[in-house]
Amino acid sequence: MRHVLTVLTLTAALSACATGEGPPPASLSPAAERGQQFVLRACAGCHAVAGREASPNAVAPAFASIRMRHTAIGLERSLAQIARQGHGEMPPIYMTNAEMSDIVAYIESLAPVATAPWTTESPQYTALRP
Ligand code: HEC
């Protein structure tokens, strides 16, 4: 009986892990922490900034997927351009160089999401159809 209970407990613990959800890593560097504060304030209205959650704005890519597709240098360039001109539906957002490198540190701290968590029937795609 004890044995069965142990197995059940283990199974429950394992399936809790398998959902892949849970708080982001607790130990952010100070720069990443500042970046996190900035993006929660300035970006989270449109982008999923933490994990695999859906973005509030369906066409704004999740930061975890941006993490996957950009190097740190590419990301910093892309942010510099966003600060000046915005892009797409996104308005220009003023960021200092220090803020941009904090944001890069935060995005680099995310676990990359290799595949987009949506399909061709999701709003991210259907919104782009003519
Ligand atoms: C008003 C909504 C909105 C806000 C606020 C916003 N974004 Fe975006 N962002 C978008 C949309 C929509 C796209 C995709 C559109 C496009 O690429 O034309 C995008 C795309 C991006 C991309 C390019 C992704 C890629 O695939 O290369 C980056 C980087 C980015 N956003 C960073 C940020 C950061 C950092 C902030 C906060 C400082 C922010 N965004 C705030 C809507 C927003």
Q: Secondary-structure element sequence?
A: HHHHHH
State the CATH superfamily name: Cytochrome c-like domain
Q: Name the overall outline.
A: globular
Q: What hetero molecules are bound to the protein chains?
A: heme C
Main β sheet profile: none
CATH topology: Cytochrome Bc1 Complex, Chain D, domain 2
Number of domains: 1
Total strands: the figure is: 0
Strand content: under 5%
* SS-derived structural category: mainly alpha
Rg measurement, Å: 18 Å
In helices, the fraction of residues equals: 40-55%
Q: Just name the CATH architecture.
A: Orthogonal Bundle
Can you give the mean pLDDT? 78
Enumerate the spans where pLDDT stays under 50 for 5 or more consecutive residues.
5-19
Q: Report the total helices.
A: 6
Distance between the termini: 62 Å
Classified by CATH, the class is Mainly Alpha
Give a verbal description of the structure.
With 130 residues, the chain is mainly α. It has a single domain, classed as Orthogonal Bundle (Cytochrome Bc1 Complex, Chain D, domain 2), CATH 1.10.760.10. The protein has helices spanning 2-18, 30-42, 63-69, 72-85, 97-109, 123-126. The N and C termini lie far apart (62 Å). The model is unreliable at 5-19 (pLDDT under 50). The structure holds heme C. The site of heme C has 21 residues, from α2, α3 and α4.
